[in-house]
Amino acid sequence: MDTIEKYDLIYAVIARIPRGSVTTYGRIAAAAGLPRNARLVGRALRAAPDGADLPWHRVLNAHGAISPRDEASDERDQRRLLEAEGVTFRRGRVMLSRHLWDPDGGDG
DNA sequence: CGAGTGACGGACG
DNA sequence: CCGTCCGCCACTC
Predict the structure, then answer these.
(1) CA–CA dist A20, A47 (Å, integer)
(2) Is A100 (CB) below 7 Å from strand B?
(3) Which residue ranges make up each domain of chain A?
(4) Which helix (H) or strand (E) holds A23?
């Protein structure tokens, strides 16, 4: 299994995240058949081209928060995009009980 | 090839 | 709820 293939698997899962929902790095990794590779999901997003049509903003960490990045503007951007889809934040975190989408839930 | 790093996550105190 | 410590693995130096 090449790294590129793993990235493609990860992208495929992210592409299925429904509008108005979010999921986590860990769940994406598991759904891609790569359990315990949450870091790889972040790395895949980092490597994803800008014009990749991926809903990258629907990916959060296990706490339902936006993971810190090099540029704080990206974090604000992500929150804006989510709020535009109706995703609500509570003390810097998304209410996962309300917006979480489980890739393995089959609810695609 | 070895050491450090990071869009992460779970266990522990 | 918070800080700390490991496990994880591709990538960088």
Answers:
(1) 24
(2) no
(3) 3-50+60-107
(4) strand A23-24
pTM of the full structure: 0.95
Calculate the angstrom distance between C1' of B5 and CA of A18: 32
Look at residue A50 in the predicted model and tell me its pLDDT.
86
Q: Which uninterrupted H or E stretch holds A62?
A: none
Q: For A1-34, how does the pLDDT look when each residue is reduced to its tens digit (9 = 90+)? A: 999 999 999 999 999 999 999 999 999 999 999 9
Q: Tokens standing for A24?
A: 């986590």
Q: Return the CATH class of domain A3-50+60-107.
A: mainly alpha
The token pair that represents A91 in the structure block:
């003390």
Nucleotide nearest to A25 (CA to C1'): B8
What confidence tens digit (pLDDT) does each residue in A43-79 have? 999 999 988 999 999 999 999 999 999 899 999 999 9
**In angstroms, rounded to a whole number, what is the distance separating the alpha carbons of residues A50 and A95?**
28
